[in-house]
Specification:
alpha+beta, five-stranded antiparallel sheet, 3 helices, 5 strands, globular
Length: 113
């Protein structure tokens, strides 16, 4: 069970299959991925990322939430914890990383501050 969290403007909830089209569009947008040092993702790469998020919740009990703007009902990003087993300095040694990414049209609205 993925908990739902709410703020005044946002709802953080588990991803659903219906979210994938929006998710793939966001990850294909260079304006969204460039600030985090990535290249735009293909649909296949986005699908791999999307299913990995669902697996985190099922296997580890934590993961990324879809971030939904309450006023529009639109998924505008994602935020959460993950363990990608990356070999990065400093070593995470089994501790989850945190991260967030927001669609380019959501930039500048204070959602990640």
């Amino acid at each position: 069970m993925i908990p739902t969290l709410e703020t005044e403007r946002l709802r953080l909830r588990g991803h659903t299959l219906a979210d994938f089209g929006r998710f793939a569009t966001m990850w294909a947008d260079e304006r969204m991925v460039a600030p985090i040092g990535l290249s735009p993702c293909s649909t296949e790469e986005s699908w791999s990322r999307f299913t990995r998020y669902c697996g985190h919740w099922a296997l580890l009990g934590f993961g990324n939430w879809a971030v939904e703007e309450k006023s529009s009902g639109q998924v505008i990003g994602e935020v959460g914890l993950f363990d990608f087993k990356r070999d990065l300095p400093p070593a995470f040694a089994g501790k989850p990383e945190n991260g967030w990414a927001f669609a380019s049209e959501a930039h500048g609205k204070g959602y990640a501050s």
